[in-house]
Specification:
29% of the residues lie in helices and 27% in strands. By secondary structure, the protein is α+β, with helices and mostly antiparallel strands.
């Protein structure tokens, strides 16, 4: 029996050329695996079938797919509904990252609460006064960021007691939204590593140095392709195995010194940057790791 396609569910109907969905489709094709792209916001239930609308307008029954890769969440208000619909698919359909894992781990709380991997001290509150009081009590410099943020959006680095800290705390908790308060680590002054991992394997990585307060490339950070130090390689491998045990098949790790700062598990950047830096095309290595998954 021929295998079904791999469905790439994206936040937009037609991803840009540098996005993961565009870069990974040729790598799947080279392995003889067809891919179908669809906006996750077209997900619907139709008389017992969980379907999406393909970019060509045809309806795709996701139960006929060999594999599903969730590469975006689409509209925020229907996130929970979409994850529940996807989780209801038969077990014969494989996910790169399970919907249940996205529910539990995308918000960064799980990483902050675990003790197996080294992570800076982190707090989370839905009101600014608790953030301000905690920072004043602990003292020093902190990173404030939204739990579900990406591309460095909303992230602020500020000293406890400063006007900048108070402004950020109040801005990030508007409408009782939660905000993460993470201890700033001095190792980040030398920059961070973005390491791509798939199915428990380290694929590749590059170093990025901050321009201003943020090392994220979307906020002006500078990337260089240099060999990954052995200690970073070891932490990345430990983290990759830890994620794979939790049914997270692909991630972008942010590492500074001995610290795992974040694990970006939904559509992390890195493949296009590595190609731009002249390091090569690592999409085939990602697909090879995922196809070998059991």
């Amino acid at each position: 029996m021929p295998q079904g396609p791999t469905a790439l569910l994206t936040a937009t109907e037609r991803p840009e050329p540098w996005e993961n969905a565009s870069l990974l489709a040729p790598a799947f094709a080279a392995r003889g695996i067809a891919t179908v792209r669809a906006s996750i916001d077209t997900l619907h239930l139709a008389n017992g079938r969980i379907c999406v609308h393909r970019v060509d307008g045809a309806v795709l029954d996701l139960a006929t797919c060999e594999r599903i890769w969730i590469l975006g969440f689409g509209r925020r208000g229907s996130f929970l509904d979409k994850m529940q619909l996807l989780a209801a698919l038969p077990t014969s359909v494989h996910f790169v990252t399970r919907p249940e894992a996205l529910l539990l781990w995308h918000g960064k709380y799980g990483l902050a609460a675990q003790i197996e991997l080294p992570h800076p001290a982190t707090w989370a509150f839905d009101n600014s006064e608790a953030l301000i009081e905690t920072a004043l009590r602990e003292g020093g410099r902190f990173v404030l960021k939204p739990p579900g943020g990406s591309f460095g959006r909303g992230m602020v680095v500020a000293e406890a007691g400063s006007q900048r800290f108070a402004w950020a705390a109040r801005n990030l908790t508007r409408a009782n939204a939660y905000c993460l308060l993470q201890r700033w680590v001095p190792e980040s002054q030398a920059g961070e590593w973005r390491i791509l991992v798939a199915n428990g394997r380290v694929i590749a990585g590059y170093h990025r140095r901050a321009v201003g307060a943020a090392s994220n490339l979307a906020r002006g950070g500078e990337a260089t392709c240099v060999p990954i130090p052995p200690d970073v390689q070891r932490l990345a491998h430990r983290s990759a195995l830890w994620l794979a045990e939790r049914q997270i098949g692909y991630a972008g790790l942010d590492i500074a010194g001995p610290w795992l700062l974040e694990a970006n598990i939904v559509n992390p950047g890195g493949l296009a940057t590595l190609a731009d830096l002249g390091a090569g095309d690592f999409a085939p290595a990602v697909v090879d790791a995922l196809v070998s998954r059991r």
